[in-house]
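Reply to dn_fold:

You asked what the input looked like. This is it:
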Amino acid sequence: MRSSSTDSSTSPSSVTRRTPRMSPQLYALALLIQETIGETTGVVEQAGQAANELNDETTRSLDTVRNFFASAINFVTSPAFVAKIIASFVVVVAGIVFYRLLTHGVPRILRWRRRHRRRTLDAETVARLKRQNTAITLGRNALRYVVFLAVALFVLSIFIENPLPATAGATVLVATVGFGAQSLLRDIIAGFSIVFEGQYSVGDFVEVEPTKAAGLVEELGLRTTKIRALSGESIFIPNGTITGVRNYVSGEQRFTVEVQLSDTGAAEKVLGSLNEASSLYLFPPRLVGREETDGRTRLRILAGVLPSMAWLVEENLVERIKAAAGEDALAAEPLIYKVDQANLTRIRNFIPDGNDAEG
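and this is what came back:
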């Protein structure tokens, strides 16, 4: 009887009644904790999968890089590639030697022929020599581009069995770059115009507009003109920027200064002052005419300077003449004539005679 009562006391219904009931707040908290634990577990699993995938991807990338370098090393060390490198080196050296032979050998041959020719350097000979020097510098400049292009095509044909597609692609690329580099094309076209029109040659003394750069033309290329200024620096001017050129073919400017003196003794002082700073002149000031009438003396002084140093006559020489003569001895301000007699003669030949015009 006791056992039965004991069993009945421990029945599930009695146990359920003894379990304390959970409040709604605790129940919600328990659910939240359970969901959080579930989400955390899912995140951890996803992170593990991502780490595994990243590890696999890294391994594949490293294998790809390792295989690439291994293939590159095998390709570079292969006998075929080494032979192509040697052939390319031979082509480059041959191009350099060919360029050096033409650019240095031809001018030396021409200079050797000039030394063995006993001819006077008249105006026609000087002009011909200038044209030769211009052709040499222009040819040297153009040959540089031709040799570079030829060597590049040879090297391309060595490394590529069928170079036509690559050449076509390079042509398209060059055309695209050329369209963008319009200033370069403009300089080259202007260079051809300068050469064919004979605006100036190597050895001419020029003054270029609008930069006002003046000096001796040392090189005339397809793209630029190299000028050596009197101060020694080299000036490179793009041909496309040149809007005008003043060409002093003779390389000098001659001035005639006419001085009228009321005192005969002042003339000797003026002539004595002409030797000052004579080293700066191409042709130092010298007396070319003297007239004495009615107690007055008129002096004509000739001086030659470089085209960009006209101030030596217009300012320096005139001031020295005034200082030597004195203000009281000067009958009038010194007159400066900048006329080339040879050019004046040519101009007169072009002007028709008045008698011919009437007839």
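Confidence is low (pLDDT under 50) at residues 1-19.
Hope that clears it up.
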